[in-house]
Amino acid sequence: MIKTVLLVDDDQEMLLALKGGFTRYRDSFGIQLAADGLQAVEKLKQSVISLVVTDLKMPGMDGFELLAHIMEHYPDIPVIIITGYSTPEMERLAREGGAVGYIAKPFLIENLARQIIARLSKESEGGTLHNVSSGMFLQLVEMEQKTCTIRLEDKLTAKKGILFFQNGKLLDARANDLMGENAAYEIFSWDQVNLSIQNGCALKKKRIHSELQHLILEAARRKDEGIEETVPPSELEEVAPVDADPNAYLKSIQEKIEIEVGPGCGLEDVYQDDSWSGLIFQFARIGEYFSLGELTLGYIDKGERTDYIVLPGEKTTVISVNPKCPRDKMLEVLGD
Q1: Distances in Å between the alpha carbon of 59 and those of 90, 137, 195?
Q2: Which of 53, 63, 121, 175 is the most exposed place for a label (fewest CB within 10 A)?
Q3: Mean pLDDT in the chain?
Q4: Alpha-helix residue ranges (DSSP H) falling in 47-196
Q5: Pick the CATH number of 248-335 from 3.30.450.30, 3.40.630.10, 3.40.309.10, 3.50.50.60
Q6: CA atoms within 13 A of residue 253's CA, in its CB half-sphere
Q7: Exposed, middle or buried by CB within 10 Å (0-12, 13-18, 19+), for 231?
Q8: How far, in Å, CA of 71 to CA of 66, rounded?
Q9: Fold of 3-122
Q10: Enclosing H/E stretch for 13
Q11: What does the pLDDT look like over 50-98, one tens digit per residue?
C-alpha cells in the first residue's frame, strides 16, 4: 500500500520544492500539501495520513499547536518538524511534544526522505497481507490477544482505514471522516483488503465498546441492506443547527459562575482560544507521567493583573479572572 505523507508549510515555494523532490520516492509514499495548521487539520479529517512533516512558524495554527492537536487526536501519526529558526530549546520542546524527528533548514531532501521512509517502515513491521478477508483475520487478532495497529485498503474502492487493538480488544477505528463504530462498519464491509500490521498501539482511549463479532455481523447486515455510514453530529467538531447561538456554551459557563460563585467572583471574560492548546497538551503529558489522571481544568497565575482558568476541549475555553477571585470555589464549580 502506498502511504500518504502530509507536508505543512506556509511557504508555497518550499512545499512545491519538496513535492518535486519527492517524486523519485513515489513508489514509497504519496504527498498531500497544506498551507498551514488549520488546513492540515482538515486534511487529517478527510484522508488516512501516515506521517506529517510540518514547519513551526505558520500563521493561524503554528507547528507546535498542530503537533499538540495530532498527539491528542491522532497519536498514531508520527510528526517530523522542519524549521528555519532552529535552537536547542526549540528542538527539545518539539521532541517533548511528541515529534519523532527534527530537521533544520536548509537540508537535503534525501536526508528528509530517509527519515520519512524509516518511520513509515514501522507501519508494516508486523507483516503485510494481500487479498484477505478482514473479518476472518481480525478474529484471529482477537483470539491471540494482540496489541497492534492495522492499516487496511479496500481492493475494490481503494478506500483506506485503520483499526487499533489493545490485548485483542478493538479500541477504535478510522476511515476517512468516519470514526469509532461507524468506521468499523465501513471497514468490515470490505470483502478483499490489503493490510499492514504495526506492532503496538498508540491509542489508549476506548471509543468502541461493542464486541468484534457483533460489529462484523452488523457490518454484513448493513451491507446487505444497502445502509451507508454517515458521520453523527457527535463525531464532528463543528456541527450545529443553523440557528444555534455559537456563544451559548460560553454564556452558560459565565452564568454558572455568576450564579454559583456570586457577585464577588472576579470574572472578567470567557472565550475560546486555540493558542493555548500547546500549553494544555504539555500539562496533560505531565499529569499522565505522574499518573494524576485526565486534565479537566487548570488555573494559571502568570503574575499579571489577570489570572486564567483553562478548560481543555476541541477548542480550549479560557476564563480570565481577577487574581483576588475565590479561586477554590471557582475551580469547584467548574469541575462539577
Answers
A1: 18, 45, 37
A2: 121
A3: 84
A4: 63-73, 88-96, 109-120, 134-143, 180-188
A5: 3.30.450.30
A6: 20
A7: middle
A8: 9
A9: Rossmann fold (3.40.50)
A10: helix 12-21
A11: 999 999 989 889 999 999 999 988 999 999 999 887 788 888 888 888 8
How far apart CA 94 and CA 89 sit, in angstroms, is: 9
229: which 3 cell numbers?
455510514
Q: Provide the pLDDT for residue 144.
A: 87
User: What are the sequence ranges of the domains in the chain?
Assistant: 3-122, 125-233, 248-335
Best CA proximity match to 208, nearest among 176, 235, 226: 235
Distance CA 9, CA 29 (A): 18
Residues of 258-282 as b/e, b for ≥16 C-beta within 10 angstroms? Answer: eeebeeebbbeebebebebbbbbbe
Can you tell me which residue has the cell 499529569? 287
Amino acid at the residue 51: L
On the question of pLDDT at 254 being above 50, the answer is yes
Q: 196 near 127, Cβ under 8 Å? A: yes
pLDDT of 241 higher than 50: no
